[in-house]
Structures are given as structure tokens and as C-alpha cells.
């Protein structure tokens, strides 16, 4: 292994200057995390996000969250404040894992976005959107509300789709199991609903928010289409459902960039497993793709900048099984011969590493074990799992190493009883 890895000190937002310089004119910046429950990952991503918006004019933040909940936040940060604190608004994130966006760290970012937006004209306001595919029922309900006000063909199509799913009691797993071995499912209904919304006549002389509301209705229909595919693919196993999900997130990101115009720029917050180019991990052997790979392929590597995150030890918020109560858990020292153990031994403190400075080192062109903690985590199983073999300088363009980390601070949000299933060991 190499010693004296080239790195830059990381103490404050001012230390991000080398990162901002390398990002340059990239249109899409992907910010990862090695867990969904670590305080420092959220706060450092927020620091990078604030600088990208203020100094480079980035248009919006798109996160690994549900479209309906995130769009409610988006509307709130673009309107005059009604006295409701951001923390209260984030309690709408009641799908497990509630802490992923229902936390004080995200509340601080949302509050900053509102204060940043307040003096700006509508086209200049930064947005906040969700990329994920899980919100089948919530998206259907949003479409029913929207289409009901319109009273046209879209309303009839939405009613047919909603009625098709009604027998399954808002439980996507029950739906997937029920249609697994029969020819009748709800695919035609949601596709018809999407096509009907796409053909609708745009509002006359709409303002910016009206355009976004129209866009949100169509996006909810797209979520319903891809969620229906996701839950059916989930039962088939393999990487098919993962690919449905990441293709949906990439499609949503592309639609958001188109909505905001040719000069728009996006910041994406997702787990390392979604943003770090899958071609430089063992995911490729299973035929799995991710947002980082798709973004590089679609926009070109020069227009996409990927930042990975990781730490050596500390604490994290996670559940012991899918849908289990959240817990603060200990994150043990990283496995020997892992990327994190190498950084701890060689650097031993928080640091920014740039891939352009790491690529000349031959040993880093091999696959190293790189820790990935999901919303499901059992520290005692570290020796068997939780690591993704990775060619680090190719998977990412930069890496933020945080030697000791702490659990984030969840809001006291009761979880919705219907928990979308997940079959992946990382729970990401």
C-alpha cells in the first residue's frame, strides 16, 4: 500500500477551495455518504451545497427521498415564511427510515435554503426535490387531488389507476405478490394515467410555481409507473429492481434539469452506492448500474463530479432490520486492509482527497474494500459484509475522509405503518 497519500486539510468550509476549483463548470455534482445516519456526512454535504449555490449558481438539490414529501419542502422554501419551523415541515417524512430526511441536520439546510431564496426572484430560487421511486400510494393520492381539480380526462385516468390499486390496502408488497403469477396487474392503468397527464394542455401564462405544480403532477405519475415496475421486479430478485430504481432517479434528475433550463445545474445527495460509478465496484458483475455511472454516460465525465464520503469509526443511526426502530449504534474500527483503514493509518485525521492526485498511485488502481452502511446495520457483522470492493480514484472524483464521526439527530417522527420492502444488504 502507498504511504503519504496526497491530501488536503479539512477543518472548515474554507478548506473546500480545492474541491470547488476542481468542480469547475461541471453541471451535475453528486455528493455521497457511507451511511444514512451520520451527522458529519450531512453537515459537510450542506457546506459544499451552500458554496455551490452561492458561488457557482447551482439550481437545486435532488436527494434520495420521496417526490411528494420533498416537493412540499420545495414549495415551502420558495414562498414567504408562515412561521412553521423547518423541523416541523420535515415530519412529513414518515416513511421508514424517517430519520433519513427527518433530522435536525436537514432542517438546518432547509432553513438556509429558505433564507437564501427569500430576497431572490422566482427563477433564481434554489429548489429541493426527491428522486426516489418508493412513494407509489402517496404519488397516486397527489395525482387524485391534482386531477380532481382539473375535472378532465386526467381525472378519469387517475381514478382508474387508483381503483386498480385499492384492493391492496396501500401495501406495495401485497400488490407485487398478488400480481406475480397472474396476467392482470395495474401497469396499463398507470401508463395511461401518465400519458394522459403528458398530453394535457399547459396552463395559460403560468407563473413559476404553477409550472412546477404541473410538473409535479406528471412526476407523480412517473413515480407510479416506475414504482409499479419496481415492486414487481423486486420479487424476481437479482439486480433488476435496483436498476429500475436508479434508472428512475436518473430520469427524474434529467427531467429536473430540463425543467430548469439549459443553464441549470444540479446537486445530488445520495448514498455512495448510488453516486459512486458502479463500473468501478463489484456491482458490475451483477449487471447493476447506478446514478453515478448513468450521469457520466449521459452528460459526459467532464460535466459530472462525484464526491464520495467515508469514516474510520464512530456512531450511526440505523435499524437492525428493515422497518425496525431506529437506534444509535457503534461503528467499529474499519476492517483491516480496507480503504478506510488505509486512510486512518496514513492520514489519521479529516482530509479531502482528490482523485486527480491519487490516480498516479498504482496500488489504488486495485479494488479495495470500502465500507457501505445502509439504514439496516448490524455492527457485529462487519467482518462479513458492509464493504464494497472499489477502485476509489475512478469511482469518485474526490473523497472526504472523516476519521471519527457521530450519529445524526433524528426528529421524533412516527413511522408510517406501510414500509416498502428492500432486498439489498446495504439498505440503501
From TrEMBL:
Top-rank lineage group of the source organism: Bacteria
InterPro entries membership: Emycin_Estase (IPR007815), Hydrolase/PRTase-associated (IPR052036), UCP036794_erythomycin (IPR014622)
Pfam families: Erythro_esteras
Source organism (scientific name): Hymenobacter edaphi
UniProt name for this protein: Erythromycin esterase family protein
Gene3D superfamilies membership: Biosynthetic Protein domain, EreA-like (biosynthetic domain), EreA-like, domain 2
Protein's GO biological process: response to antibiotic
Amino acid at each position: 500500500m502507498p504511504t503519504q497519500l496526497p491530501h488536503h486539510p479539512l477543518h472548515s468550509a474554507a478548506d473546500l477551495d480545492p474541491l470547488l476549483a476542481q468542480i469547475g463548470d461541471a453541471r451535475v455534482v453528486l455528493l455521497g455518504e457511507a451511511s444514512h445516519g451520520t451527522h458529519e456526512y450531512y453537515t459537510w454535504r450542506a457546506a459544499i451545497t451552500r458554496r455551490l449555490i452561492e458561488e457557482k449558481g447551482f439550481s437545486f438539490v435532488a436527494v434520495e427521498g420521496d417526490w411528494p414529501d420533498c416537493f412540499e419542502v420545495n414549495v415551502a422554501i420558495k414562498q414567504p415564511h408562515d412561521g412553521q419551523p423547518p423541523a416541523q415541515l420535515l415530519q412529513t417524512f414518515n416513511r421508514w427510515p424517517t430519520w433519513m430526511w427527518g433530522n435536525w441536520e436537514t432542517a438546518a439546510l432547509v432553513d438556509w435554503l429558505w433564507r437564501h431564496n427569500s430576497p431572490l426572484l422566482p427563477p433564481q430560487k434554489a429548489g429541493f426535490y426527491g428522486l426516489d421511486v418508493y412513494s407509489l400510494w402517496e404519488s397516486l393520492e397527489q395525482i387524485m387531488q391534482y386531477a380532481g381539480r382539473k375535472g378532465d380526462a386526467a381525472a378519469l385516468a387517475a381514478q382508474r389507476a387508483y381503483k386498480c390499486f385499492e384492493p391492496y390496502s396501500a401495501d406495495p408488497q401485497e400488490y407485487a405478490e398478488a400480481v406475480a403469477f397472474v396476467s392482470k396487474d395495474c401497469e396499463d392503468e398507470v401508463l395511461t394515467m401518465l400519458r394522459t397527464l403528458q398530453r394535457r394542455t399547459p396552463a395559460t401564462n403560468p407563473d413559476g410555481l404553477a409550472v412546477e405544480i404541473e410538473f409535479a403532477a406528471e412526476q407523480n405519475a412517473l413515480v407510479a409507473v416506475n414504482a409499479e415496475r419496481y415492486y414487481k421486479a423486486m420479487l424476481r430478485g437479482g439486480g433488476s429492481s435496483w436498476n429500475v430504481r436508479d434508472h428512475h432517479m436518473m430520469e427524474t434528475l434529467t427531467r429536473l434539469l430540463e425543467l430548469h433550463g439549459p443553464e441549470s445545474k444540479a446537486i445530488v445527495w445520495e448514498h455512495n452506492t448510488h453516486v459512486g460509478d458502479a463500473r468501478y465496484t463489484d456491482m458490475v458483475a451483477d449487471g447493476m448500474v447506478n446514478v453515478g455511472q448513468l450521469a457520466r454516460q449521459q452528460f459526459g465525465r467532464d460535466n459530472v463530479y462525484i464526491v464520495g464520503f467515508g469514516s474510520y469509526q464512530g456512531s450511526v443511526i440505523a435499524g437492525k432490520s428493515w422497518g425496525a426502530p431506529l437506534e444509535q449504534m457503534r461503528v467499529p474500527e474499519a476492517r483491516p486492509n480496507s480503504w478506510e483503514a488505509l486512510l486512518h493509518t496514513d492520514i489519521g485525521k479529516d482530509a479531502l482527497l482528490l482523485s486527480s492526485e491519487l490516480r498516479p498511485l498504482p496500488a489504488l488502481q486495485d479494488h479495495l474494500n470500502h465500507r457501505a452502511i445502509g439504514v439496516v446495520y448490524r455492527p457485529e457483522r462487519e467482518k462479513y459484509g458492509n464493504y464494497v470492493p472499489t477502485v476509489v480514484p475512478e469511482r469518485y472524483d474526490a473523497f472526504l475522509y472523516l476519521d471519527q464521526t457521530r450519529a445524526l439527530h433524528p426528529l421524533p417522527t412516527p413511522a408510517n405503518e406501510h414500509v416498502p420492502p428492500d432486498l439489498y444488504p446495504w439498505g440503501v
